[in-house]
Amino acid sequence: MKFNKGFTVIELVVAVTIVLLLIAVALASFNDHMTRKYRAEARKALIETAEWLRMQHAKSGTYVVALPYTQLPNDDNARYRIELVASPLTATDPKVQFPAVSLDAFTLSAVPLNEDACGNLLLDSAGRVGVSGADARVADCWH
């Protein structure tokens, strides 16, 4: 009686398929994690920039100033562009009108440079937050 010492082709195909499925799940999870990380960095930058704008307003009486930085991170690998909204903007969630930059009010926007389901992240001088993505919700994007 002779026994084969090795794997059959079917066993190898099954093993390779399982490994590839695990890799696919791991990559999807990693990409989702990195998107949430970049979004968190953008939220932090909006909050810090809003505080900076409030200090500038206390000094100069206006929010119409040049921002200290306009992209995040501040290198060649930018993921978001930070900007003051020049004209009133209606967010998709909540359905509210965010003001344009003026002497008394501002809206900051973090514009993703790559595709992001949340669209632009918004923060205004009253502390309201919003998003501009078609199906985006504040609860998902600003948590």
What does this structure look like?
The structure is a single chain. The longest helix has 52 residues, at 9-60. The protein has a 5-stranded antiparallel sheet, with helices on one face. It starts with 8 loop residues before the first helix and ends with a helix. The protein is of the alpha+beta class. It has one domain (35-141). The chain is 39% helix and 17% strand.
Summarize this structure briefly:
With 143 residues, this protein is an alpha+beta fold. The protein contains two helices and seven strands, in the order αβββββββα.
Low-confidence stretches: none
Q: What is the total tally of β strands?
A: 7
Number of separate structural domains: 1
Q: Mind telling me the C-alpha Rg?
A: 23 Å
Total number of helices: 2
Q: State the order of secondary-structure elements, H for helix, E for strand.
A: HEEEEEEEH
Largest sheet: number of strands, sense, barrel closure: 5 strands, antiparallel
Fraction in beta strands: 15-25%
Estimate percent helicity: 25-40%
Q: What coarse outline follows from CA principal-axis ratios? A: elongated
- Widest sheet, order of strands: 1-2-5-6-7
Cα separation of the termini: 65 Å
- Tell me the quaternary state: single chain
* Classification by helices and strands: alpha+beta
Mean pLDDT: 89
